[in-house]
Amino acid sequence: MKLPTLILCALVAVSAAASSRRPVTVTEATPFAAGYEYTFRYATQIGSGIRSQPNAETFESQQATYQIAADAVIHFQTERIATLRLKDVIVTSQNGAVIDPRRVASVNIGEEQTLETQILEQLEYVVKFDYVNGLIEKVYFNGKDATWSKNVKRAILNMVQLNLARQNMPSEGTNYVETASKNMFNLPEVSLEGDCQTMYVISSPVSQFFNVTKSIDFKQCRRIAKIQYGPRATKQCAECQKQADQQLDRASVLQFELIGTPEKYAIRRVQLLSQYVYKTLATESAHPMQTIVASELFLTAVEKKTVKALPTVRRQRIHR
Q: Disulfide connectivity (predicted)?
């Protein structure tokens, strides 16, 4: 089974088990608006190891897994300027097999890590960003924030990015299909993963709900980002990066549960599943090394808030 198909099928396994909290009701969910604060529960699980069987759809031999759970609080100061801050951060890790690494398990499956003060401070640095018609246009990080901490926050922002307004759609060469039951279109999009062709499939509304599936085509990218998920030392190496890209198969799919219409909607729940399979010089029958990232973001509260002045932070575009 090809990676994108596997990822799409596995999305149904992503669960909110990492928290006892539940998403807000239909009446409580509101579109992003100035003067409001939106609290999401975020949970992500990153597992790396050796796949037990070639081309297997289950991965019992996952070797190492760690999880991050936090409240992600997004406050809109204006219609397009917002901030993101993390609170109540929990990090757990474990070694050994995971029954289903595509499912976000309860955070108590592993040993909770006591975060060093410096690491916790980095995670708690506020991020300011421009949000225009569903797209993250610019991100303003604290100058002291580390690369891995920025990527945790980028990952969350990536899960609230939706180009339903079809911005940046080229006039030529765009694959666009529309039927009575669904919309489907491809367009280039800059995200955490890079600058890649992205497919959107919009389902027909049921009551006040509708779903959007967003998949990234890594075969059609102008740039692919190098993602660092933990507080590790890094070395710059252009040739190393080129070689790593050639040795890596990747796939990412996001599924959004929205309330409203494609023109005006509230984000109630987002699920993400990414798979990275590392090629080796061994034969195709060799057991490949892989990383699976399963994440979930769901809205737990909406409150009206007054605007508070924030310290100046360094501006940085989303793709850097």
A: 237-240
Instruction: Tell me if 52 sits within 8 A of 38, measured CB to CB.
Output: no
Domain count for the chain? 1
Contact 250, 3 (CB under 8 A): yes
Query: If the chain, 320 residues long, is cut into consecutive pieces of 10 residues, what is the mean pLDDT of each piece?
Result: 44 44 86 97 87 54 78 97 95 71 59 68 94 94 92 95 82 52 82 87 90 92 66 42 60 95 95 85 61 94 77 50
Please, which residues bridge with residue 114 across strands? none
At 249 the pLDDT is: 83
Q: What pLDDT does residue 126 have?
A: 97
- CB-CB contact of 4 with 214 (8 Å): no
Handedness of CA 44, 50, 52, 53 (dihedral sign): positive
Q: In this structure, what CATH number is given to the domain that contains residue 36?
A: 2.30.230.10
Q: Give the residue from 268, 280, 216 showing the smallest Cα distance to 244.
A: 280
- Residue identified by tokens 């939106």 is 38
Domain that includes residue 202, residue range: 3-317
What pLDDT does 85 receive?
Answer: 97
